[in-house]
Design brief:
17 helices, elongated, single chain, five-stranded antiparallel β-sheet, binds adenosine-5'-diphosphate, five-stranded mixed β-sheet, alpha+beta
Length: 525
């Protein structure tokens, strides 16, 4: 309230007090005079009640009680003055009626005053609560609307009464239905965030504006109608609205419906703008799809590289064996036995090449690969036989150190591929050393800790120099002129896939050593 208004109100109240106070005093004086100076036979003192009622407008509760005592005193004084110390019963009863009337009136006035004070207190609390709500409503960063859904609720209740239960189905039979429902909604108030969201500068306060902001094909709007028809207490869903500039915005919409049907004239609707979040989610999905495509392409690249790498050895061996075969046949007379041996080798290597294809196809199709029980010593022997030509050409001696026979369960071909890679690397690492020192040692140990076995392949080359040790397993890292740098990366991932590990380091006595640790039974069998 403004200062001037407050002064005016105070002035008005003072005039009111003076008027009623003065009237009460005048009335009391008149009653006292009549009661004392006249000999009218009646309960004149009862008229003090009128003074009390007039005074109640100007004084507080304590004043009222004091005034009651004074009026009772004055009544007694008049009584003694007119009737002396020995009154008859009738006059005494009249005095008693007057005193009782004064007491009852005071009690009623006090009760009314208490009720009025309580009412005023409640009214103030209500006003404060309304002001608090208004301030929260206005300042909230969430877009809030107060909408009048009462007419819409009545309309839907009527439809329900007529037997409609599915709003969506009904909207298909009546093309005007959605539009009619929108017309029945009135916006009572909108906060700043709501105005901002709609891109307007003024609150949308006209009935029917809903048309502008809710798309005609909005599924969320139909769901709201259904929720109202079903008497739901709460509604929450993703929705779309159209702002003033015609842009569609994704929002999270929530409405809590009142229990009391008469409160449907002020239903609060909240909206959170999630347009950016939705756009980010869409971008993320697209990026993920892009990544999936890229990684598929990369996988195909790695697989072809791996295939080329793995096929190199058997195809090379087939070439060498073919040359040898031709030489044996060119002899005069042809050495049929030796030619047969070469042909058998060709057969064996072509079988291996075909196994490699099979295994690659299996790894691509993610089908389970055949696991079998096999003897590790035998597998090493077979592998060395396969590499016989390469090793002979490089004049490499291979020593196998194994005390006990070890049985393993797993995919034999995979482990063999790893062994071929590591032995071939070792042989290449010593290719330029003195032939007398070209030794590759394969030490098999097991079981070591917790049923693991170890296969260490050590060479007598220069070891892992410079950044080699750090980058050994990085795909496409190679120090060789014709290398692909893919072998060790594939070896490690295939061993790790079986629950094992592969590490490369320098041996204290020189050369490099690669150690495979494998569980005897595959971890993911
Ligand atoms: P590539 O043999 O095609 O180069 P690898 O992945 O098998 O691919 O090996 C990567 C690199 O690791 C090799 O180029 C080489 O520098 C190094 N390397 C592998 N084995 C040995 C070894 N026994 N001694 C020294 N360096 C090695």
């Amino acid at each position: 309230m403004q200062g001037a208004e407050m002064r005016l109100a105070r002035h008005g109240a003072r005039r009111h007090d003076v008027f009623f106070g003065g009237a009460a005093v005048a009335m009391a004086a008149a009653v006292f005079a009549i009661d004392t100076l006249t000999s009218i036979e009646g309960a004149i003192a009862v008229l003090y009640v009128i003074s009390l009622l007039l005074a109640a407008e100007a004084i507080d509760r304590t004043g009222l009680k004091i005034l009651t005592v004074i009026f009772i005193g004055l009544s007694l004084l008049s009584f003694l003055f007119t009737h002396g110390p020995e009154p008859d019963l009738q006059t005494f009863l009249r005095l008693s009626v007057a005193v009782a009337a004064l007491c009852v009136t005071t009690a009623l006035l006090l009760r009314t005053d208490r009720a009025r004070t309580e009412l005023l207190g409640m009214n103030t609390a209500l006003r404060e609560s309304e002001a608090r709500y208004r301030s929260i409503f206005d300042r909230a960063r969430v877009a809030l609307w107060e909408r009048d859904y009462s007419k819409l609720r009545d309309f839907l209740a009527g439809l329900k009464h007529a037997g409609v239960s599915d709003v969506t189905a009904h909207s298909q039979t009546d093309p005007e239905f959605v539009s009619t429902c929108m017309d029945l909604i009135k916006v009572v108030a909108a906060n700043e965030a709501a105005i901002e969201l709609l891109g307007t500068s003024t609150p949308p306060d006209e009935g029917g504006v809903t048309h502008q902001y809710i798309p005609a094909d909005s599924k969320a709007f139909l769901s709201i109608l259904q929720a109202i028809m079903d008497g739901a207490a709460y509604f929450e869903d993703n929705a779309e609205i159209i702002n003033r500039n015609g842009e569609r915005k994704a929002v999270l919409l929530s409405i809590s419906f009142p229990d009391d049907p008469s409160a449907f004239n002020r239903v609060v609707v909240s909206m959170i703008d999630v347009t950016q979040r939705e756009e980010a989610r869409k971008a993320l999905t697209e990026a993920q799809a892009e990544l999936a495509r890229a990684s598929k392409a990369a996988t195909i690249g790695v697989l072809s590289a791996s295939l080329a790498h793995d096929l190199n050895q058997p195809l090379g061996a087939i070439g060498v064996n073919c040359q040898t075969l031709v030489r044996w046949l060119d002899r005069d007379p042809p050495d049929i036995e030796a030619a047969k041996r070469s042909a058998e080798r060709i057969l064996r290597d072509s079988g291996r090449a075909s196994d490699i294809f099979k295994s690659t196809r299996l790894s691509m199709s993610a089908a389970s690969k055949d696991k079998e029980k096999f003897d590790l010593g035998e597998l090493i022997g077979d592998t060395l036989a396969l590499m016989e030509h390469d090793l002979q050409r490089e004049r490499t001696t291979v020593k196998v150190v194994q005390n006990d026979r070890i049985q393993l369960v797993g995919v034999k071909l995979e482990l063999q591929q790893v062994l071929i890679n590591l032995i071939a690397n070792a042989a290449q690492a010593i290719a330029h050393s003195n032939p007398a020192l070209r030794l590759v040692t394969i030490s098999v140990d097991g079981p070591i800790e917790a049923d693991y076995i170890s296969i260490a392949i050590r060479d007598t080359g220069d070891g892992l120099v410079g950044e080699t040790q750090r980058k050994l397993f990085t795909p496409f890292f190679t120090t060789k002129e014709n290398g692909m740098g893919i072998g060790l990366a594939i070896c490690r991932s295939s061993i790790e896939a079986r629950g094992g590990s592969l590490e490369g380091s320098n041996h204290p006595d020189g050369g490099a050593v690669f150690e495979i640790k494998l569980p005897k039974e595959p971890v993911n069998a």
